Amino acid sequence: MASLSFVSSSLRTPSLTLRTTSHSSPKTSVSFSVKAQSLSQDDLKKLAAEKAVQSIKPGMVLGLGTGSTAAFAVSQIGKLLSSGELHDIVGIPTSKRTEEQARSLGIPLVTLDTHPRIDLAIDGADEVDPNLDLVKGRGGALLREKMVEAVAERFIVVADDTKLVEGLGGSGLAMPVEVVKFCWEFNLVRLRDLFKEFGCEAKLRVGEGGEVYVTDNSNFIVDLYFKEPLKDAVAAGWEIGKFEGVVEHGLFLGMATSVIIAGKNGVEVMNK
Ligand SMILES: O=C[C@H](O)[C@H](O)[C@H](O)COP(=O)(O)O
């Protein structure tokens, strides 16, 4: 295996700094129109999701994300369709859960086979860094999410401000890797060893009832826990992807075109 250094700086130049607005070309806009101080975390997720839904136009093919924040967006799309404020859209769900929700709301669904280009995808994230790079997949939907969001013209991430990190892996929570069931332990050990100098722990994901978690694609998930943020997420993603039997990882790099973050101070829109 090629030796890997995670200490080099990112291969890509940061194009956006979270709390700083460039004088020449502002990329961040903050709306303080909502008195957000007293809102719950769910209220904030809803606020971000509903703001993203405002970008939907009739005729669009939509990527429908997965998770508690994306569910607010799907629900709002359903409402707008039933009130007639929105029409002529189709959606591609990124999980069985989202598919069920969308069907129950009467959102017309298609697939990537028939609609290989997507106008707009809206989805949540587990971590968002200052470059708008992401960790996703704590809800287990990373593979379908990445397939759908990779072909989206625009990909808007919606989240509350607890998801902001200075570096990916920095939350101390799981960074998921979807692996085939065959010899999953072999891949768990390889993944742990790849990051061992950073004190990485690797665990097979188990469900709430203690059973092994199985994805919509009938695979397992190995969750990686880092003691410090990845210094070079591009190199990390590249090395993880080289292991045979690894199906996908939760690093979504260079994919988001906008991030909408709702926090106590209002709604912040960050554009690439
Ligand atoms: O697999 C799940 C997805 O990547 C979710 O979008 C992500 O985990 C964020 O979920 P939530 O909005 O529930 O925090």
UniProtKB/TrEMBL annotation:
Signal peptide, first to last residue: none
Broad enzyme group: isomerase
Family annotation (InterPro entries): NagB/RpiA_transferase-like (IPR037171), Ribose-5P_isomerase (IPR050262), Ribose5P_isomerase_typA_subgr (IPR020672), Ribose5P_isomerase_type_A (IPR004788)
Source superkingdom: Eukaryota
Enzyme Commission code(s) on record: 5.3.1.6
The entry's keywords: Isomerase
Reactions mediated catalytically: aldehydo-D-ribose 5-phosphate = D-ribulose 5-phosphate
Pfam families, alphabetized: Rib_5-P_isom_A
SUPFAM superfamilies (alphabetical): D-ribose-5-phosphate isomerase (RpiA), lid domain, NagB/RpiA/CoA transferase-like
Pathway this chain belongs to: Carbohydrate degradation; pentose phosphate pathway; D-ribose 5-phosphate from D-ribulose 5-phosphate (non-oxidative stage): step 1/1
GO molecular function: ribose-5-phosphate isomerase activity
PANTHER family xrefs: RIBOSE-5-PHOSPHATE ISOMERASE 3, CHLOROPLASTIC-RELATED
Family, as annotated: Belongs to the ribose 5-phosphate isomerase family.
The protein, known as: ribose-5-phosphate isomerase
Organism (species): Eruca vesicaria subsp. sativa (Garden rocket)
